[in-house]
Design a protein that fits this description.
Layout: E1 8-12, H1 25-40, H2 55-59, H3 64-72, E2 79-83, H4 98-107, E3 112-117, H5 125-136, E4 140-143, E5 146-149, E6 152-155, H6 165-173, E7 178-182, H7 200-206, E8 211-215, H8 222-231, E9 235-238, H9 245-248, H10 250-262, E10 269-270, H11 280-288, H12 294-298, H13 307-322, H14 326-333
Parallel strand pairs: 1-2, 2-3, 3-4, 4-7, 7-8, 8-9, 9-10
Antiparallel strand pairs: 5-6
């Protein structure tokens, strides 16, 4: 918690960019380099190196205890939502294997929820939806609008009634009401078109009782994304990567959040850092202390970012959208190893022991 405010990091990842996991060496390595050099290194607090992971650890981050320690012992995060990344055309086990999140959930009850990644191109995709919900117990699904199939980029649209709608309807029938879709950030040296948000509105119209969480919303295509939030009450914005602007370009962060606030998204902005894309602590602290620049309020019409807004973004909005009970979560975690910490641990000091799915079964 930060100042007694419950904090949910709505995207956590444990990456596996290792050569052994790459199906396509050129694109697989390029995506890993982009995430490390461009994002992990590029969005660190100026003049500070303690938040930076060595590249070999970033590339082989399938270490459940290490990620959990960074989230819950080293930052103010109370609950994390682990997202798997189902780029099976690029990586054997995907980029962010779901079993790591399962291991964290098992070892730290009450601390971790799961969004299961799924690709319409994988064999038995509808049956995989059933498995993720019924056997794994995910609370949402995660889609990526492109994969590499037989060495070629294969995009798909969220508004496609033949490809996307059967997956959404199957999840909906099983009780899922939150689906996250990766947008705004191309996955390496591939065409940018699938990462535009324009297909979200078709799905939002077709499934009005499902919330579509636009991950990285506003990092690019800000105006297009903001108009969707204004028009569709079941479109939400996940601030993963946008939150990274807080430490390097706070004015840019103000413009992103201010645009969404001006378009009525106060109750649909969701906090996320993508840990371990970034260490969560400096971004949480910068956000809690952040103020909307006066000139943007007075001369550009942006609303103030109030403490109530910050509480909602840090946790309250996601609590409502997923139907969570904070008191139940706090009771289940009140005596665990992280609740007893006297102060926040130093960054990246957890036990680093890369594991396998078999070792955590």
């Amino acid at each position: 918690m930060i100042d007694n405010n419950f904090v949910i990091d709505s995207v956590a990842h444990a990456y596996n960019f290792t050569k052994a996991n790459q199906r396509n060496a050129e694109l697989g390595q390029a995506l890993g380099d982009m995430c490390y050099d461009g994002l992990h290194i590029g969005f660190q607090p100026r003049g500070e190196t303690r938040w930076i992971l060595p590249k070999e650890r970033f590339f082989n981050a399938v270490a459940p205890e290490f990620l959990a320690h960074a989230l819950f012992a080293e930052s103010q995060t109370d609950l994390a939502i682990y997202h798997s990344i189902p780029l099976y055309g690029l990586y054997v086990d995907g980029v962010s294997p779901l079993w790591v999140g399962e291991a964290m959930r098992k070892q730290y009850p009450g601390r971790v929820l799961l969004f299961g990644g799924i690709s319409p191109w994988q064999d038995g995709a509808l049956e995989e939806v059933d498995r993720l919900i019924e056997d794994v117990g995910v609370v949402g699904l995660k889609f990526y609008p492109e994969d590499i199939i037989d060495g070629k980029a294969q995009p798909w649209r969220l508004d496609n009634p033949e490809i996307a709608f059967p997956l959404i309807e199957r999840a909906r029938q099983k009780g899922i009401r939150s689906i996250a879709i990766h947008k705004a950030m191309p996955l390496g040296p591939v065409p940018i078109a699938p990462f535009l948000p324009r297909d979200v509105e078709g799905a939002a119209m077709a499934f009005p009782d499902v919330t579509f969480e636009v991950v990285h919303g506003g990092f690019a295509f800000l105006e297009e994304t903001a108009t969707q939030v204004a028009r569709f009450k079941n479109v939400a914005i996940n601030l993963e990567c946008c939150s990274a602007f807080l430490v390097k370009a706070p004015r840019k962060f103000a413009e992103i959040v201010g645009t969404f606030l001006a378009n009525g998204a106060r109750d649909r902005l969701i906090w996320a850092t993508g840990a371990m894309l970034y260490h969560p602590r400096p971004y949480i602290e910068r956000f809690w202390n952040f103020q909307m620049p006066r000139d943007l309020v007075e001369n550009y019409g942006f609303p103030e970012l109030t403490d109530a807004d910050k509480r909602a973004i840090l946790g309250g909005n996601q609590v409502r959208l997923l139907g969570l009970n904070v008191e139940d979560i706090q009771r289940s975690t009140q005596d665990d190893v992280f609740s007893r910490k006297a102060r926040l641990a130093e960054p990246w000091t957890g036990r680093y022991a890369p594991a396998t799915a078999e070792s955590w079964a």
